[in-house]
């Protein structure tokens, strides 16, 4: 049973700012901190390799003290809007009707809502009453690829079906106004908000790159490296500085056995669809692949234009590859990392 990725679409919130325009707001937030600390924060923003980012809140609101209740209410309202926009956009792009979807997966880790956003989409877009739902809430940056893996498993077991994976994230809603830690500042410097939708199919008539294989890799004793801590003011970022080095150490085990299982060598992989977690992680992976003559230019460009949108970001990279009309037979590997600590992989063939 062949499963194909038919299309990818993206949607962006209404607010946006270039990094240079955010720096005065950063100064206002840090007004009571010492000069050396402010210079360090400026350097983090200036060196983040992010030129622009989008937000569900006005940038001025991000740096004001709002409660978890207020921020989460904005999150709920805006992700429903973005979910409607991006799913409709993907359906239009694929020329599918809403009632032809059999399976809907929604992924998000930057807010809390019950019922989950898919329940709202069923009503607003007129999806079928017997559609199968899977909300994924706790896999962080890896969840975009995780959703593709779950959809692939469903479609392999169910011929002639269609699935949608919708990623919706608002890291700006997790900014901690009273937290002057480096983790909070780094998070603010690299993250942005956005939405993406991937449509997949096991129908013979639906075309697109074929999913050849999928896999997950779990790091032992690495739960402390990435995630959120739920505090009274919301979701507080956990981001260990050892993440890039840990990825580099495990990289051969992440990539080589996965490719070998499919009788493929890394030299045969034409395209790297890699999640841009941040500048240091991007540089780490670029160093690992650069010696093999590979580049991750699309990954860097997505980071520059939008920042890290958690689970959404790798799907923006995937869209760039789908829009290129690549030659038949080309191979690509999708890769993202997330809390746990884990790596998710998908092998694609055009």
Explain this structure.
By secondary structure, the protein is an alpha/beta fold. The protein folds into two domains: 4-201, 3-Layer(aba) Sandwich (Peroxisomal Thiolase, Chain A, domain 1); 210-349, Thiolase/Chalcone synthase (Peroxisomal Thiolase, Chain A, domain 1). Helices cover 39% and strands 24% of the residues. It is built from eleven helices and 13 strands. A five-stranded mixed β-sheet has the order 1-7-6-4-5, sandwiched between helices. Strands 8-13-12-11 form a four-stranded mixed β-sheet, with helices on both faces. Helix 5 links the parallel strand 4 (103-107) and strand 5.
Whole-number radius of gyration? 20 Å
Helix content: 25-40%
Q: Could you give me the name of the CATH homologous superfamily of the largest domain?
A: Thiolase/Chalcone synthase
Going by helix content, strand content and strand pairing, the class is alpha/beta
* Count of distinct strands: 13
- Uncertain residue segments: none
Number of helices: 11
State the name of the first-level CATH class of the largest domain.
Alpha Beta
CATH topology name of the largest domain, in short, is: Peroxisomal Thiolase, Chain A, domain 1
First-residue to last-residue Cα separation: 16 Å
Largest sheet, order of strands side by side?
A: 1-7-6-4-5
List the helices and strands and how they pair.
Blueprint: E1 4-11, E2 15-18, H1 19-29, H2 35-46, E3 52-55, H3 59-62, H4 68-94, E4 103-107, H5 117-125, E5 132-136, H6 143-157, E6 162-169, H7 182-190, E7 194-201, E8 210-218, E9 226-231, E10 234-239, H8 243-261, E11 271-274, H9 279-290, H10 297-306, H11 313-322, E12 331-338, E13 342-349
Parallel strand pairs: 4-5, 4-6, 11-12
Antiparallel strand pairs: 1-7, 2-3, 6-7, 8-13, 9-10, 12-13
